[in-house]
Amino acid sequence: MLNIKKLLLVLLAITVTSCSEDFLETKPTDAISAADALATAENMALILNGMHRTLFAQSQTILPGDTGDSARSGEHYWVPMGDNISGGIIHSANANNLGWRDEMQWQNHTLETDITVTVLWYHRYNIIANANSIINTIEGGSLTLDARLKEILGQAYTYRAYAYLSLVQHFAKGYLIGNPSTDPGVPLLFSTSAPYTSAPRSTVQDIYNQIFLDLDDAIAAFDGATDRGDDKSQLNVNTAHGLKARAALNTGKWETAAREAVLAREGYPIMDEADWKSGFNTVDLPEVIWGSVVLDTETTFFRSYFYLMSNTFNGSQVRNNPKIADRRLIDAAPDTDYRKDMFLIDAPNSNNSAANNMGGWDNNTNPLYTTEEEFEAEIDRLANEWGWTSAHNTHPYMHVKMRQKTPGGILPDDIIYMRSSEMYLIEAEAMAMMDDIPGAQAALAPLGNERDSAFDVTVFNTKESMMEQIKFQRRLELWGEGFGYTDKIRWDEGIDHAADGGSGASAVLYQDGYQQDKPSVNDDWIFKIPQAEIDANPNLSPSDQNP
User: Where's the RagB/SusD domain (predicted)?
Assistant: First the structure.
């Protein structure tokens, strides 16, 4: 059956004994037996804690055999990958640690033997297998369904929905641009123990039906459950509502999307300017609904989200290759919008190996720097202000949105998965798609007014103008948080770094990632199913491979 038949219940408390940028040595603790793990609510809570850790642990400590790899550390990689593939996070120079350059060149997800598709697939099914064990045990009725067990059950249903949503978004055609009743989705898996027998590929519609069923069951289970308190790595009812809002937006269930987005953000107020500019490095920010509290003992260091895309991290991926934003997006932001401050438009290009061949003083064209001394002084000033080292390069339009708590170091810090600003944007988009422009204006106004002192939502008084503004707000507000890939699929937009004056990306460096046709006519947007799965699963054949 599925290679997932090799997966045991994950109860991880990973201790890393040494670390370098090229090598990470890990030592997982022993796992307890499946029977003991499912015997009590507190033991099931240990399974959940293991699932939480799978979101940010190195995959070779979670997945067996050749289905894991030290170069993929869960959401550290998957979250920014959504903006890396879609061209939102732009590489300013050639660097390929962990295959990060290959992702933006569209070399990884289009290859069935690549570790990106393999690890993403098995990581998500690992979550499903563990969730199944909890769900099937509790629903079997052998334990008293008290408040604590209801919380555990709610989290398990939410996790399963989350995993299926990720799988169907990556390994199947987009719902709104395809034929979901016939388009192949992914296999459904309900087994509790080996051999983890799955069904053949279900349709995209079937997978979304299961997602909505699981989220409804999660929301019901959370009613009367114990509260997670301040631990935002634990899933709660707001998380379930937020995932339901996302799934509804994907499938054109506009009323559901709007309603669930409002429920998801209850109790999570929009951040103010100081919080928005603080670095996005902690789940303690007031509008964060869900995120991973990354443990220092996991020491993902040079496998972390911040290593891949934060310009303050002390690693070669960013020292040599500062990540920049699409200049078309940043130039469109008004000066009254404080989010624009987190993109250093006039940072000198200090990298002699920059992809645009404009690095160094000899190639400077910025009239702000009339002498080499001024050019070098600005480089030093930026390093002092933002905390990176003298070995870090700078580049126009580089970002300082994501910054570590200790800039210039190597600590990974937290990963944010869901916050209330996204929910305002979901509600606004759903209202606009229902042709309720006043409703869309009312949904967008709180976010726009907070971020831009001159924002006037009444200007966007048609469906077309409102949708363009919502897209702009999503791209700016959620930049670097991983939504670019799924947004482009939902909106059926291609990639064109050359259009409208250019994004700032290099055609030579970006190769296939420089231009891609829209997803409705371009199946390369769909991730390949791992060849290991095709080979191992008797319910799949080579004809099931994505085109």
Answer: 314-547
The whole model's pTM is what? 0.94
For residue 45, the model assigns a pLDDT of 95
Taking only the tens place, the pLDDT of each residue in 274-284 is 999 999 999 99
Both 14 and 115 in a single domain? Answer: yes
Host domain of residue 246: 1-313+331-341+412-547
CB 467 within 8 A of CB 490: no
Res 351 pLDDT > 60 = yes
Q: Are residues 267 and 321 in the same domain?
A: no
H-assigned helices in 313-435: 316-319, 327-332, 372-386, 420-433
Closest CA to 405 of 229, 279, 516, 222: 279
User: Which pLDDT score, from 0 to 100, does residue 527 have?
Assistant: 98
Which among 388, 411, 434 is the end of a domain?
Answer: 411
- Among candidate residues 366, 383, 411, the one where a domain is terminated: 411
Distance CA(272)–CA(269), nearest Å, equals 9
pLDDT tens for each residue of 192-230:
666 566 789 999 999 999 999 999 999 999 999 999 999
Q: Is 481 left (phi over 0), alpha (psi -120 to 50) or beta?
A: alpha
348: left (phi over 0), alpha (psi -120 to 50) or beta: beta
Mean pLDDT along residues 82-99: 96
Q: Residue 25 is part of a domain; what is its CATH number?
A: 1.25.40.390
Query: How far is CA 482 from its chain centroid?
Result: 4
- Please give the structure tokens belonging to residue 170: 């990556």
- 92 in Cβ contact with 324 (< 8 Å): yes
Whether 424 and 270 have beta carbons less than 8 Å apart is answered as: yes
**Closest to 348 measured CA to CA, from 332, 373, 323, 366:** 366
102 lies in the same domain as 150: yes
Give pLDDT tens digits for 427-484.
999 999 999 999 999 999 999 999 999 999 999 999 999 999 999 999 999 999 999 9
**305 and 347, same structural domain?**
no
